[in-house]
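User: I would dearly like some help making sense of a protein record. I have put the entry right below:
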Amino acid sequence: MGRNFNRFWAGSLSSNLGDGMMLVALPLVAAMLTNDPLLVAGLTAVRFLPWLMIGLFAGVVVDRVDRVRLMVLTNLGRGGALVVLALLIFTGHASIWVLYAVMFTVMVCEVFYDLAGRAMLPDIAPAGAIDRANSRLVGGQTVTQQFAGGPIAGFLFAVAAFLPLAVNAGAYVLGALVLLGLPLAVRRPKRPEGEAAGAAEKKPEGRPVRSVLADVREGLVFVFRGSSLGPIMGFNMVVNMAFMAQSAVLVLLVREHFGVPAVLYGVFIGTSAVGALLGASTVGLIVARLGRFRTELVLVPLAGCACLLFGLAPNAYVAAAAWMVIGYVMTSSNIVLIGAIQLIVPGIQMGRVMACVQMFGAGFGVFGALLGGLLGRVELYYVPVAAGAVVLVGLLLSARALSRVTGQADESEAAQVAEAERAARETDAEQAAKSREKDPDQGERG
């Protein structure tokens, strides 16, 4: 995959370790501070609220600035916020509202970090390897975030509530330092062919600089009028709302409904990591055999059925098995869908399009989290059952749009591979010609 990708991957691994610790530690702190399902679900709502509030603006920023520098600064910001929370917990001054404030701050930074990473990936991955690159990122994320970060946070929390947050902050700082070695060539979006580097920054005298709102509008027009991505945004929104509703009350489902102790909470949710790692390892083979569209037709219904099984599970062991299946199908499906979008979107608009994807997915997950909290007040297991039903209905309404987008991605990938092979042949021919010029007798000896 190349040195640049490996460095990018290493920085992501460290940051993902921090994410895994945070996503286990903060719900445990919330459950320590309150047992109200709505207040606990509110933490998940706050987690995704920044995507709804600043997602489109962040996409414009990502398309304008040095993406590596942006990722470094936001990682340092995340680490600083968690150090503050660790100190407040240690001194006994933490509250659910402080927890909300820290989660919001961390996630504002994560909005910029994630968008910059996703927008930069097509420039780092070799031609024809976008699914493999996404699979490695997701596989590494699974190992560090769920196999390592989640269980470590659970055990450290059992010792002292502030410990996982302090270690988490260190992981973010390390991830920031690793990214500093990436070259300038991949830090900014590639310009369309024929446009010189820096041309966008040179404005004629008397002409106003392009506004942020104009860039946001351009991105939205591309998504909903200039491409076939509009219905996919709706599908992404519905599915993510369903899963956010389930995730919002997960800590209560696991601890109260299934009776799993706090020290094993990280281990329980880590079962999805087993499925996610299997999904990241095998999705490339499945796509190669079935194609992107038929892969989605298999995975999404399986996800809906797994949610139903999780809600109706008779004990924690069956629930853990269902959670593992959910991890497998959701990871595989996301790799296919994100890779398809990355293949059909121009690099200069990648940040804004990815912002739309995240805003309509994670951003509207805020409402799913609140709905999950309200439904959880009635009965906790109703939440995953309702989520499974919503996923199945969402697929029925979006199948045609999925077929169109995945077909365009297949065509784009084939064209990229053909172009890379042509460029390689031309390079080989040039090198052979130079060799013959240096040694005119080489051709005769050959």
